[in-house]
Amino acid sequence: MNPADALVDENRRLGELLATADPETPVATCPGWVLRQLLTHVGRGDRWAATIVRERAEERVDIRTVPDGKPPADDPVGWLADSARLLVDAVAATGPDVPVWTFTGPKPAAWWIRRRLHESTVHRADAALALGVPYEIEAALAADGVSEWLDILTARPVPADGPALPDGATLHLHATDDGLGADGEWLVRSEDGRVAWEHGHGKGAAAVRGSAADLLQAVLRRIPADDPRLQVLGDAAAWRTWLERTPF
């Protein structure tokens, strides 16, 4: 999977979903939003990331200063597509390994492509749920989305209401899709209250099995902890607590 190509393709799929939809359709998984706001959020975020990369920013850029941060009324989907391409072009021009600001600390510029890719995959799920249509995503891409989310969590401090998992407890996530191998299994634990993880198979306080697409939606709280598409083994309360203490 080439992340830059995947970002452009995922952005296209989101645009196709939104092109014929009523922009005022409520998005239940993003309370208070309608599809018009979801489109703006994704496109503006891509342009914000492109600005950070292009300017080689060492500090947070005010998203309100991003050029063309609102879609034109006559072609919002085209604006959305251009937003992803601006980020890909910015990373190519700056250099994928050049360090820039991110909300997890300085990272290579290419970090933003993967981050924005999975912003689009998850918000496409939001749009699909809002429109009542199936959410389809390649298993390998969904599995990478789970890994990317866990990477973000490792940079967070201990939640104010306590660790997502007690020290010594392990959460095992297992994607049931064929062909993923080690990339489809995750062992998540706490180290001094902070999230740590690795690919692997093992017993834990709780194990959650499902397709990579369903696991991605579950860890990002797009489907309930007890959704019938998930098989939860062991301590279901540990799984629910994990979700409660790892909001997006």
Automatic annotation (TrEMBL):
**GO annotations of cellular component type:** plasma membrane
- Taxonomically, the superkingdom here is Bacteria
Q: Membrane-spanning regions, if any? A: none
GO MF annotation list: metal ion binding
The record's annotation in InterPro entries points to: DinB/YfiT-like, Maleyloyr_isom, MDMPI_C-term_domain, MDMPI_metal-binding
Which protein is depicted? Uncharacterized protein (TIGR03083 family)
Tell me the Pfam families matching this sequence: MDMPI_C (PF07398), MDMPI_N (PF11716)
Q: Which residues form the Mycothiol-dependent maleylpyruvate isomerase metal-binding domain?
A: 6-128
MDMPI C-terminal domain: residues covered: 141-240
